[in-house]
Design goal:
about 450 residues, FAD/NAD(P)-binding domain, D-Amino Acid Oxidase, Chain A, domain 2, 2 domains, eight-stranded mixed β-sheet, six-stranded mixed β-sheet, binds flavin-adenine dinucleotide
């Protein structure tokens, strides 16, 4: 394939999530890319970052997996940010990360009189009036605590700046990463920026372009030939020639390439504007909800129009939302996945279960006044792509045995972290026929196809 770099190439990337967009970006930055000979077309069924890549948390970590890909991708995130103003453009920054064990409080345990305001006067007033009470004790932020209480929190390993998790319920803090090993981006902003930067160097990005089929050379089906897609607005179908196809359709990968062992898991998330700016921490929580925390009504779609409702108990349950503080006064939180609703045909048809989003809001509110008194700015859901193959935790990146077909999918819960590394490797697979920047033999799709 290396010699083919000098030939005319029509490269088609399928999917405008982070993997498709970083692939398009690095294809346009590959030394062999020559816009006078090569075309790069990205086809996205809906809008760029309309799926998980626009709704993920955005945590980046050197301690993520797989270890063959993580260091490359973590480094590339920093390089991309330095090269394109990522701090401002997509919220790149280093963060602290820890696991917290907490006991949640009843949501009516504290009477809130609206967003809290940072400042000593405000804190003192709230303390005096006792309107931040729980079980007769002042439930206030770390700075409001006595020296004695602060000493106890320090002994539990709780950093002083983590003052937006209620001190009462905070049982322990275990550091998982620090700003030298952990960072974050805003996934939607990052992904859309990658698409724009690829366009700047000649890639063509088509949204509302739903790929109907990958067409192979006949009669052997041993190489790719073209791609047929439908314009969602006009319904018109078009077939474009392809010498190379990068299949990066995330959880939808199987609809175009049934042999790929990739499944989908739905997950809900919310964003909250906290009542005051909070420090840069990403938290993996374990929260024991108090007795009688309340029940919620679940509606389960059983297919064919049948919906069943039932009450879910939340009393004394242990829940584990992840909470990521973000720049520009935003906090993101997500809950656990579910298989209640199968993957819909496209990202705009994803069913958002209001009750599940409210659960996440309630859980995080039970341990933080700043989140409880904040404003919920988004309730959303998306599907994460998992790999179902023994011996492979995913992702699958590389050649498929079909000439010209490169697979880049199945990034599970670390697709944002591993996006740039994947894109870089895709550029190498397409133009050089092999991975150069990392040893990723364990991610070879041919091992599981
Ligand atoms: C709640 C949650 C939190 C997460 N948090 C993090 C995190 O903090 N850090 C991290 O590293 N990762 C995180 N992830 C994982 C990450 O979001 C995913 O691994 C990643 O977004 C997958 O990217 P993708 O491009 O493969 O898939 P997607 O983002 O799903 O993109 C696939 C795209 O392909 C398009 N497509 C599908 N079929 C077709 C077709 N026929 N024609 C054209 N286009 C098509 C879709 O419309 C979609 O836009 C999180 C995931 C979830 C669900």
């Amino acid at each position: 394939m290396a010699s083919a770099a000098s030939e005319k190439r029509n490269i088609v990337v399928i999917g405008g999530g982070i993997i498709g967009c970083t692939s398009a970006y690095y294809l346009t930055r590959h030394p062999a890319y020559d816009p006078s000979k090569h075309t790069i077309t990205l086809l996205e069924a809906g809008k760029i970052a309309g799926g998980a890549s626009g709704k993920a948390g955005g945590l980046l970590a050197l301690w993520a997996y797989p270890s063959s890909l993580v260091p490359l991708s973590y480094r590339l995130h920093k390089e991309l940010s330095d090269a394109h103003g990522g701090e401002e453009r997509w919220g790149y920054r280093a963060v602290h990360c820890g696991q917290v064990d907490c006991v949640g409080r009843h949501l009516d345990a504290i009477k809130s009189d609206g967003p809290t305001v940072e400042g000593k006067e405000d804190r003192a007033t709230k303390g005096e009036h006792g309107d931040l009470k729980d079980d007769g004790k002042a439930a206030v932020s770390l700075q409001k605590r006595s020296k004695d209480a602060m000493g106890r929190l320090r002994a539990k390993g709780v950093p002083e700046e983590l003052d937006w998790v209620s001190a009462e319920g905070l049982k322990s803090y275990d550091e998982m990463g620090d700003p030298s090993t952990t960072a974050q981006v805003h996934p939607f902003q990052f992904t859309t920026a990658m698409a724009e930067l690829a366009q700047d160097k000649g890639a063509v990005v088509r949204t509302n372009a739903s790929v109907k089929s990958i067409n192979y050379t006949s009669p052997s089906n041993s190489a790719v030939d073209s791609v047929t897609y439908a314009d969602k607005e006009t319904g018109k179908e078009e077939t474009i020639p392809a010498t190379d196809i990068v299949l990066a359709a995330g959880p939808w990968t199987q609809t175009l390439f049934p042999r790929a062992p990739i499944s989908a898991l739905r997950a809900h998330s919310v964003t909250i504007r906290p009542s005051r700016p909070v420090s840069a921490y990403a938290l993996f929580t374990q929260i024991r909800l108090p007795e009688n925390f309340g029940a919620r009504t679940d509606e389960v779609n059983q297919g064919k129009g049948n919906k069943k409702t039932f009450k879910a108990r939340r009393s004394e349950q242990i829940v584990t939302p992840e909470i990521y503080a973000r720049p520009k006064n935003e906090v993101y939180a997500c809950g656990e996945g579910d298989h209640l609703v199968p993957l819909p045909a496209s990202s705009d048809l994803v069913e958002v279960d209001e009750a599940r989003c409210q659960d996440i809001v309630d859980y995080v509110a039970s341990i933080s006044d700043e989140l409880r008194c904040g404003e919920v700015t988004a309730k959303q859901a998306c599907y994460l792509p998992n790999v179902n193959a023994s011996g492979s935790g995913g992702p699958l990146i590389g050649l498929t045995g079909i000439k010209g077909l490169v697979l880049a999918a199945g990034h599970t819960c670390w697709g944002i972290q591993n996006g740039p590394g994947t894109g870089k490797l895709v550029g190498e697979f397409v133009f050089e026929g092999e991975a150069r920047s990392a040893r990723v033999k364990g991610l070879d799709p041919r091992l599981v196809l």
